[in-house]
Amino acid sequence: MLDGKQVLIVEDDPVTAVVLQGMLRKLGAVAVVRDDAACAWKALCAQPFDLVFLDLCLGESDGETLLRQLRATGASGAPDPRTPVVVITGRADLDSRVRLLDSGADQFVMKPFDLRELEALVRAVFRRRSANGRLGDRAELELDAPGRSCVFRGRRVVLTRAEFDILLCLVRSYPQAVPAAGLLKEANDAPQRSTALQVHIHHLRQKLHEDAIETVGGVGYRLADGQVADPTLQLAA
Question: What pTM does this model have?
Fold first, then answer.
């Protein structure tokens, strides 16, 4: 299924790396292993990859920092910031999972993992990327500001007040990214905590599409290109 796909495994545990490499080769992929963030970044800059497996705990390195660095790369830069990333983590708490998704993880898998589940996850990532690429070529998002209604891909989406205000702010600011503080102000959350914003963004991605809102490292969030470039955005005044 993954014939010729280039996959980067960022894992400092040799046993786990061998297991992942064997699974990917079984699926037909070409697997490259790097055991720290610095070497992984060099590999990402040297060639394009179709998928990255990223362990968060890399000894002295920080996998989450590498993830943020990848997602902050310019759209025309190398490596490609849209490269799918599956995070391997032992962190089970909700805050950590939400933070990983907001940092740009496409999927995450908990240790210890089952290879059958991992294979299914990999197939799902490639199916989704193949089917969607970006967010599509037809009108994706329709917002009626006065009526406070949202339609995405032809279906009505029920949003909370805070979610609608955040989405409206992102639409009106497109293509610029909006700082987290600005979105918190739009959401009028009290107390205004970054974790509250992360939860709102996570819920919006669940209700719309996981690629609908991009995380811009060190800045904030922006609406993805695929749904707002003419003629993909309709905003009722």
Answer: 0.57
